[in-house]
Specification:
Strand order of the largest sheet of chain B: 3-2-1-4-5
Radius of gyration of chain B: 14 Å
Largest sheet of chain B: 5 strands, parallel
Helix content of chain A: 25-40%
Helix content of chain B: 25-40%
Structural class of chain B: alpha/beta
Largest interface: A-B, 34 and 27 residues
Number of helices of chain A: 10
CATH architecture of chain A: 3-Layer(aba) Sandwich
Structural class of chain A: alpha/beta
CATH superfamily of chain A: Histone deacetylase domain
Number of domains of chain B: 1
Mean pLDDT of chain A: 96
CATH architecture of chain B: 3-Layer(aba) Sandwich
Order of helices and strands of chain B: EHEHEHEHE
Low-confidence stretches of chain B: none
Strand content of chain A: 5-15%
Distance between the termini of chain B: 22 Å
Distance between the termini of chain A: 46 Å
Shape of chain B: globular
CATH topology of chain B: Rossmann fold
CATH topology of chain A: Arginase, Chain A
Strand order of the largest sheet of chain A: 2-1-5-10-9-6-7-8
Shape of chain A: globular
CATH superfamily of chain B: HUPs
Radius of gyration of chain A: 18 Å
Mean pLDDT of chain B: 86
Low-confidence stretches of chain A: none
Strand content of chain B: 15-25%
Number of strands of chain A: 10
CATH class of chain B: Alpha Beta
Number of helices of chain B: 4
CATH class of chain A: Alpha Beta
Oligomer: heterodimer
Chain lengths: 343, 136
């Protein structure tokens, strides 16, 4: 099977020296891809900058104007975590466009696996706000393009942080299901199991919080027990993944205990939700320890291509089984109340 | 001002935020309102959590001294999230604030931009009144 990635992986812009969301992350990802030795089975599509119309499907026009102007005037801090520089607007447009280009190639080939290796990440960016290192919501731009074509899109977000931006953008969209596993309680504070989607899309938001220290078996249990039945009912025609690798036990940004072997297993499980080859694309989100990022990219993409490149075993025995069961109950209770009362 | 029972004051330890707490504590005293001082803990707080907490504590204690209020009588909530989202959450249960108070940004090289200004973003999105305390 062919791996389809976006070009320009080593772009050096959008940098705030000392900030953990840094250009070296993409270089680590590129090393991770090279470890697969794919040769002719690797295709890098031409860079594409998302158009204003494509961005405006998921972002307010005023926000886009403000962000562009802010960058052209030199940028600065957008909040305590998030920065923009002179070149951030252009780079963010290419990051958002990369997913569109990869998906278009998957559609043409009707085969393969996509990997959108871009920064800045996107899943915290909402319709009108940058936050959590994110400027434009890359995966949301891609999902909106697909729904405009009549597709039903599943977004699985295994980044260690809840993707509040993605959730809010598709809160009332019955054609996008958002499933997130994330550390809880934790930044950004959203992602409770009783957050289940708006009245027009009840049940299409599935939050699976796990406690600090949780291992891969707990995350998989959450996906299998709670999310899988909902996903099967939703019947997606496409699967997109917010593939952050900051749930790795070596990552300094969080407290989960996953290994690169766990990401391989998560990749295989997630791929099983896709209806056929050529309907799965991963989007880079977090992941700040370069060695863990590199090895996790290798293991997860390798698994999707049918090879075992994991250098660490999947993890077991961490806390969280009770939390997973409780979250399942809380979700079902919220669904019952919402359907009974219309609230 | 009638109907203000609980006020939430955003606090990042800066001089602008200290001004907001000063104003908020005095307002609460005059209106017999409860005060919740709120510190948003962002992603980067991961790297220096102890230092951040100590700085916030020391800065808040300094303001309480200025107003003549016992630090122990002021409730401090440290909440995961960005400053704007965290303050908006204060309008919801369990805090259910009736008024949000923040300082101006002051430091920005891009005055007038909505982006990067918690106070302006908050004013745009908040369902309850917002007081933006100017730098004195």
């Amino acid at each position: 099977m062919m791996l389809i990635i976006n070009g320009h992986l080593d772009d050096a812009g959008h940098e705030d020296v000392g900030h953990p969301e840094r250009p070296e992350r993409l270089r680590a990802v590129l090393r991770g891809i090279n470890e697969l030795h794919l040769d002719g089975d690797l295709l890098a599509v031409a860079p594409y900058s998302a158009s204003r119309a494509e961005l405006a499907r998921v972002h307010d026009a005023t926000y886009l104007d403000e962000l562009g102007a802010y960058c052209y005037e030199g940028g600065g801090d957008l909040d305590a975590d998030t920065y923009a520089t002179y070149d951030s607007w252009s780079i963010a447009q290419f990051a958002a466009g990369a997913g569109l280009a990869v998906i278009k190639e998957l559609q043409i080939r009707d085969d393969g696996v996509g990997f959108v290796a871009v920064r800045p990440p996107g899943h915290h960016a909402s319709r009108d706000r940058a936050m959590g290192f994110c400027l434009l919501n890359n995966i949301a731009v891609a999902a909106a393009e697909l729904t405009s074509q009549g597709e039903r899109v599943l977004i699985v977000d295994w980044d260690v942080h809840h993707g509040n931006g993605t959730q809010s953008i598709f809160w009332d969209d019955p054609n996008v299901m958002y499933v997130s596993t994330h550390q809880w309680p934790f930044y950004p504070g959203s992602g409770a199991p009783y957050e289940i989607g708006g009245l027009d899309a009840l049940g299409t938001t599935v939050n699976l919080p796990v406690p600090a220290g949780a291992t891969g078996d707990v995350v998989r249990q959450a996906l299998l027990d709670t999310a899988t039945p909902a996903i099967e009912e939703f019947a997606p025609t496409w699967v997109l993944v917010s593939a952050g690798f900051d749930a790795h036990r070596s990552d300094p940004m969080a407290d989960l205990a996953l290994s690169n072997g766990d990401f391989a297993e998560l990749a295989i499980l997630t791929a099983s939700f896709a209806p056929r080859p050529g309907r799965l694309a991963l989007f880079l989100e977090g992941g700040y320890e370069l060695g863990a990022l590199q090895s996790s990219v290798t293991s997860s993409l390798g698994a999707l291509l049918g090879a075992d490149f994991a250098s660490e075993r999947p993890t077991h025995g961490g806390p969280g089984s009770d939390a997973v069961a409780n979250a399942k109950e809380a979700r079902f209770a919220a669904l019952r109340i919402a359907r009974d009362t219309g609230l | 001002m009638q109907g203000i029972r609980t006020i939430a004051i955003g606090f990042d330890g800066s001089s602008d935020a200290q001004g907001a707490v000063l104003w908020g504590l005095n307002f609460a005293h005059d209106n017999d309102a409860l005060v919740v001082v709120v510190h948003a803990k962002g992603l980067l707080a991961r790297f220096e959590p102890t230092v951040v907490n100590e700085e916030i504590e020391a800065s808040l204690a300094h303001v309480c001294d200025e107003v003549g209020v016992a630090r122990s009588s002021v409730r401090l909530e440290v909440v995961d999230g960005d400053a704007c989202s965290v303050m908006l959450r204060m309008a919801q249960p369990p805090v259910s604030a009736d008024l949000l108070v923040v300082g101006t940004r002051g430091q920005s090289a891009h005055a007038g931009h909505l982006l990067g200004s918690t106070s302006l973003e908050l004013a745009q999105h908040s369902p309850i009144p917002v007081v933006i305390v100017p730098r004195s």
